[in-house]
Design a protein that fits this description.
The chain has a single domain, classed as Trna Endonuclease, Chain: A, domain 1 (3-Layer(aba) Sandwich). Helices cover about 25% and strands about 35% of the residues. The protein has 3 helices and 11 strands; from the N terminus they run αβββββαβαβββββ. The strands form 3 sheets. It has a 7-stranded mixed beta sheet, sandwiched between helices. The chain has a two-stranded antiparallel ribbon with strand order 2-3. It is elongated and about 70 Å long.
Length: about 170
């Protein structure tokens, strides 16, 4: 059985990869363990965004599909420590709700990017917001009449193609 949080992580990873250049990322890998340099422990991360073609410069991605309250200060502080311990170049927190006030302060101080992604998103239907950008995906079926007219004009308004299909 696929759980909602797991689907949320997969969709978030897909969308971050799709819009990777907006985050300065070459690609986004799935869930994995990353070794802590200072602590020696393994950290499981939801996704890893690579900034270059090598694994040396990477971003930790954490997804939290909490629907009743925004991320708390201690959650973001925990992500901040994982960034420090693994020598990551930064972090991204993905959640349906905005960060709480203290969490926002920690995220800003530590260079963690806040991404809001609706809780029931899919790879085709989503609303994703970060910084001053909003990405929206909508997939819908449009009923067609018995005929369709296709008309193509150039920049000056000249008709280049005009055909009706029955």
């Amino acid at each position: 059985m696929i759980t909602r949080w797991k689907t949320y992580e997969e969709v978030a990873r897909y969308l971050l990869a799709k819009f990777g250049e907006n985050f300065g990322l070459k690609d986004v890998e799935g869930k994995q363990k990353v070794k802590g340099i200072r602590s020696g422990t393994d950290w499981e991360i939801d996704a890893k965004g690579r900034k270059t073609d090598t694994n040396e410069m990477f971003i930790i991605v954490e997804c939290r599909r909490h629907t009743s309250s925004g991320q708390k200060q201690d959650h973001i502080a925990g992500l901040s420590y994982r960034i420090i311990d693994t020598s990551a170049a930064g972090g991204i927190i993905v959640s349906p709700l905005p960060l709480q006030e203290g969490a926002k302060k920690v995220a800003q101080a530590e260079g963690i990017v806040e991404v809001t992604l609706n809780k029931d998103c899919s790879t085709t239907d989503y609303v994703m917001q970060f910084l001053n950008e909003v990405m929206v995906g909508v997939c819908n079926t449009i009923p067609l009449s018995h005929s369709v007219r296709v008309k193509v004009t150039d920049a000056e308004g000249n008709v280049e193609f005009d055909k009706t299909y029955e």
